Amino acid sequence: MARHGQEDIATQLVAHLSRAFCRSRRWFPKWNDETLPHLSEEQRNSLSCPFQEEEIRLVIFSAEGNKAPGPDGFTFWFFQTFWTLVKADILQVFTELQSGRPGLGRLNASLFTLIPKRSGVSDVNEYRPICLVNVCYRIVSKVLATRMKKVSADLIEEAQTAFIPGRNLQDGYLVAQEIITTLTKDRRSGVALKLEFEKAYDSVHRDFLYQVLAQHGFEEQWVMILQRCMETGHGSVLLNGSPHEFFPLDRGLRQGDPLSPILFIYVVKALCRMCKVAMRGGWYNGLASTSSGHRVALVQYADDTLMRFEAMEADARAARFITFCFELVSGLSLNWSKSVLLAVNVPEPQRQVLARIVGCEVRDFPARVLGLPLSSSKRKTGTPE
How buried is 218 (Cβ within 10 angstroms: 0-12 exposed, 13-18 middle, 19+ buried)? Predict the structure, then answer.
């Protein structure tokens, strides 16, 4: 009886995740930004050059050896210990990937383990699906992600502080705290809109990601390699230690895939670009940073996003329109019931008006932003959660 109950649960979980990762059939408008920075010829060559044994070996030996294995049961420890025996096979995988030959699909399997977002959950939507990816594929993904990170600092806005070498979580937080503290001290008004994405990685529209990469000057061969990594993926639910039926992963990015964080940054950067276009057009205002004098529209740490604007109804409407446009092209959805509006030196009636325009609730300081406590008064900088 218990076995039948477990099978029923597994069937429901497979059906739920199959729907979640099924390619959306709705129409997505194309997004075009001719002002995006481009890769240099040298950077393109660094991506397209043949994969070297040493860069692959460094990725394998820098990984934690006994992390959770994927469907094949192997860990990094196995590849580290028997590197001389498996080296030729691993190098062959990279050769086939770069030459465009099929074959990655059989390595690109994942096991989904469901992590509850809070205690006492009963709805499957309240679980976060985390992927346990085959280590052989993870090696490929880590090498690709390492190459991408090396060229991304010149392409990703400074407002994004996640996963880019040389940037730190606290960079964006300090800018946000500086602006809020200055507004309080100078008795000026301003608004911070903390955005909460709903199932951010899972809902990414992949064609939009490919468009963004192409507009940055990534060569077709490189985009095809990334596409092969995403489009050949398939997953199964891990329930009580046992995998169940496999299903294709036709949408989004997998949490647990080393490539996903850097690729997700290219998706959410579009929101920053849209804010900049609106600011140049004069129909959206950020808030001035006292250190640089520039007006700052938002700060981001991966999907953790804080928009800032003047406490005016026109700016609130512009913020709502910008986020709507971003949702439309990217496939991501904002959870407005969890997003909050934070205001400095703004009367309560006006705060409520602004909150109604953007469609979220008002919250008072202090608030946790980018994992740190943001306050309208002087306080010591906190530590990341």
Answer: buried
Q: What is the pLDDT of residues 86-107, one digit of tens each?
A: 999 999 999 998 888 766 777 8
Residue range 132-182, pLDDT digits in tens: 888 999 999 999 999 999 999 999 988 887 788 888 767 777 777 888 888
Contact present, 100 and 224 (Cβ < 8 Å): yes
Q: Where are the beta strands (DSSP E) in 204-348?
A: 234-239, 242-243, 247-248, 287-288, 295-296, 298-301, 304-309, 333-334, 340-344
Q: What DSSP line would sit under 17-74, residue for residue?
A: HHHHTSPP-S-------TT-----HHHHHHHHSPPPHHHHHHHHHHS-TTSPP-TT--
| Burial category of 318 from C-beta neighbours within 10 Å (exposed 0-12, middle 13-18, buried 19 and up) | buried
Report residue 147 as tokens.
């190459």
Q: Extract the tokens encoding 35.
A: 């002002």
In Å, how far from its chain's centre is CA 102? Answer: 27
Q: Facing residues of 235 across strands?
A: 110, 247
CB 361 within 8 A of CB 196: no
What is the C-alpha separation between 62 and 120, in angstroms, rounded? 37
Q: Pull the structure tokens for residue 180.
A: 């809020």
Inter-residue contact 269 to 160 (CB < 8 Å): yes
Angle between helices 135-152 and 260-281 (to 10 degrees): 30
- In Å, what is the CA distance from 321 to each residue of 105, 283, 309, 379? 40, 11, 14, 34
Provide the 8-state DSSP code for 370. T
Torsion of CA 100, 102, 107, 109, to 10 degrees: 100
